[in-house]
Design a protein that fits this description.
This protein is an alpha/beta fold. Helix content is 28%, strand content 14%. The chain has 13 helices and 16 strands. The protein is globular. The termini are far apart.
């Protein structure tokens, strides 16, 4: 009996000790979950105006938190956007400024060759000297985990997640591998996890003579192990294993980036909702019998996963102590059967090719952002603060009580999150993109300056007043040459020559590497 009483006392002391420790961490060390969708448009969430695709869990985050209306990605495509987030530096400074498949290694688009030789997988790496957001939080005793798509350093290089501050990684190292959601393998830390999927080279199409209206024709594109589900399970496990906090989870979903592949229950739901449609059998990415239904299904499945994360936080007693941020890496795509104009995916901006993903117009770089932190962020609030991916580094560092690196371009937006006056604001935001013929952009107040086709010798700056012209249709450069000159000066001082030849702008005076 005395033994049982002793055990009971120990249990009670343990419970109260854990409560005390938990409360202490609640004050000083909030958990952080950063959810990054892939190619999700500004207008593809219900709370941002979407009328067809249903996103109740993400909408609930906004209802219980803060919705940002002037938030920007670091870049209009995958890898550089992630580099800006990881480093807190805009694309005039960050190491990775474009997608770079590092082709000099060999046949990097041969999926069997990549499977046989992991050195051919992945993108050009972040330098070892890079200070990442994960390393900063790790210095504050955070458990750091990442699931999803990396794209910032090939296997065998210094750029892999576990060498850039993450204790745990599970997912795609390589962006090209994510061109199928049924890959032959994913990575768990520095080891490959072989999946029960055969090699179906991304961008394959239907067999010759196959009937596009026969479901059996698509058997090669619906295999066994669905990567988004596997990665989601690992994310929930990471939360379980680190329930004592503090933890940082970077959840970089590959959804809704094409190819069109989604769980059957969601595809069936939208087939019934949308009715009959023409199959997609184009030349890019995989074919799909129900392209619109599948695209909507991918987003609703991502929304379901967000609901799972919230439920897990409640289950482990960390919901009130966790800042959740949901956003997207860039605007919606124009390829692979994703009929984004049908969904008005970039609304109120233009969605078509040339205006969304890959371009520094608003549809390509302005993205949704929702922040939820029960008891700290006032529910149902909106923020018009000019903000961008580079702001996450100083914001998360302040939350963790540590300094961010001195060379960041971001500002802490914590005052805005807490409903306080934001004394430090951006005088401007800057982008450069060494692809799609070369582009630069500046957002300064309500003015937007864009320079396109730089690699073709064009140095003219277009000027738009976003208060009156949200779709950037009326160039006012000739009317306001004073603003254009200011934009030109910002572009000049914000650009530093890249250390990689692939990202240089000769037209801006960059010299070749010797």
């Amino acid at each position: 009996m005395k033994y049982l009483k002793s055990i009971a006392i120990i249990i009670i002391i343990s419970i109260y000790t854990n409560i005390f420790i938990s409360c202490e961490k609640t004050i000083d060390h909030p958990n952080i979950i950063y959810i990054l969708a892939d190619d999700l448009g500004y207008g593809e969430l219900g709370v941002y105006g979407q009328k067809i695709i249903e996103t109740p869990n993400i909408d609930a985050l906004a209802k219980n938190g803060m919705m940002f209306t002037n938030h920007y990605s670091g870049s209009p495509v995958c890898a550089p956007a992630r580099s800006v987030f990881m480093t807190g530096q805009h694309t005039g400074h960050t190491p990775i400024r474009g997608n770079d498949e590092w082709k000099e290694r060999g046949d990097t688009w041969n999926y069997q060759a990549m499977f046989d030789n992991p050195f051919l997988e992945g993108q050009r790496p972040l330098p070892d000297s890079t200070v990442t957001i994960a390393e900063v939080l790790k210095s504050a005793d955070y458990a750091t985990g990442m699931v999803g798509k990396w794209g910032l350093g090939a296997p065998t290089t210094e750029g892999v997640p576990n060498k850039q501050g993450f204790d745990f990684f599970y997912g795609y190292n390589c962006q090209r591998q994510a061109h199928t959601l049924y890959p032959m393998h994913l990575w768990r830390n520095d080891e490959r996890h072989i999946l029960d999927n055969k090699n179906v080279a991304p961008h394959s199409n239907l067999d010759e003579g196959a009937d596009p209206n026969d479901p059996a024709s698509y058997a090669n594109f619906e295999l066994n192990d669905y990567a988004p589900s596997l990665m989601h399970d690992e994310a929930l496990k990471f939360l379980d294993e680190n329930r004592g906090g503090p933890f940082f989870l970077y959840y970089a979903s590959p959804i809704p980036h094409v190819p069109l592949q989604a769980p059957k229950k969601w595809v069936d739901y939208y087939r019934e909702k949308l009715g009959e449609e023409e199959p997609y059998t184009g030349k890019s990415y995989f074919p799909n019998q129900y392209p619109r239904a599948t695209y909507a299904a991918m987003i609703s499945y991502l929304d379901e996963q967000v609901g799972d994360l919230v439920n897990k936080l409640v289950e482990i007693g960390q919901y009130e102590n966790t800042l959740i941020i949901f956003t997207s890496d860039n605007g919606p795509t124009y390829t692979g059967g994703a009929d984004t104009p049908f969904f008005d995916s970039a609304k109120p901006f233009k969605t078509e090719r040339g205006w969304a993903k890959g371009f520094v117009h608003e549809g390509g770089i302005r993205v949704p952002m929702i922040a939820s932190w029960p008891g700290r962020i006032s529910p149902g609030t909106k923020a018009s603060l000019l903000s961008a991916f580079q702001d996450m580094m100083p914001t998360f560092a302040e939350l963790a009580g540590v300094d961010s690196p001195p060379d960041v371009d971001g500002i802490s937006i914590l005052p805005t999150l807490m409903g306080k006056e934001q004394s430090e604001t951006h005088a401007y935001l800057y982008w450069e993109f060494p692809a799609y013929n070369g582009q630069q952009a500046v957002r300064m107040g309500n003015w937007k300056g864009i320079r396109k086709n730089i690699f073709k010798g064009n140095m003219t700056i277009e000027l738009y007043d976003l208060t009156r012209d949200i779709q950037e249709q009326y160039d006012l450069a000739s009317v306001r040459p004073d603003i254009v000159k200011r934009m030109e000066k910002i572009m000049k001082r914000s650009h530093t020559p890249s250390n990689l030849e692939r990202f240089k702008f000769p037209q801006l005076g960059d010299q070749p590497l010797k």
